Amino acid sequence: MKNGTDSFVSLGHWPSAGGFGFNTDILATNLINLSVVLGVLIFFGKGVLSDLLDNRKQRILNTIRNSDELREGAIQQLEKARARLRKVEIEAEQFRVNGYSEIEREKSNLINATYKTLEQLENYKNETIYFEQQRASTQVRQRIFQQALQGAIGTLNGCLNSELHLRTISANIGILGTMKEITD
Description:
The structure is a single chain. The protein has three helices and no strands. The longest helix is centred in the middle third of the chain and has 134 residues, at about 25-160. The chain is mainly α. The chain is rod-shaped, with a radius of gyration of 68 Å. The chain has helices spanning about 1-10, 25-160, 160-184. The relative contact order is 0.02. It starts with a helix and ends with a helix. It is about 90% helix and about 0% strand. Its main location: membrane. Keywords: ATP synthesis, CF(0), Chloroplast, Coiled coil, Hydrogen ion transport, Ion transport, Membrane, Plastid, Thylakoid, Transmembrane, Transmembrane helix, Transport.
């Protein structure tokens, strides 16, 4: 077996004189093999490679078209959203302005209502003071009248004797009798 291996290895040392053998020069054999493989690939794979490249090109173009369409749709949606935002901002500003005017109107109404309430309370207070003054005045008059009446009764009782008392009663009875005759 050693002879078979030696002969195989020794083939690499033979000069190439038209015989078959292995070339152990790596650089020379790789270039030849590479050029043969590339030649075969180009010859047989040209159609397949061009079809693959065309398909890839079509997919890339379709992707670009789709992305352009999506970009246009996104731009349109963005413009619609901006328009809605402007509309909402305008409405918010109107609500804010209307809210402030409504607040001012409510504030004014509240102040006016408070002034009216205070005015009514002042009127009630004045009426109560007037009523209390009238009541106090009436009580004072009644008390003065009672004291005057008691003083008059005391004076009359002190001044009247029984004879004068009987004459006064007779005179009053006479007056009442005359009045009765006139009314009949």
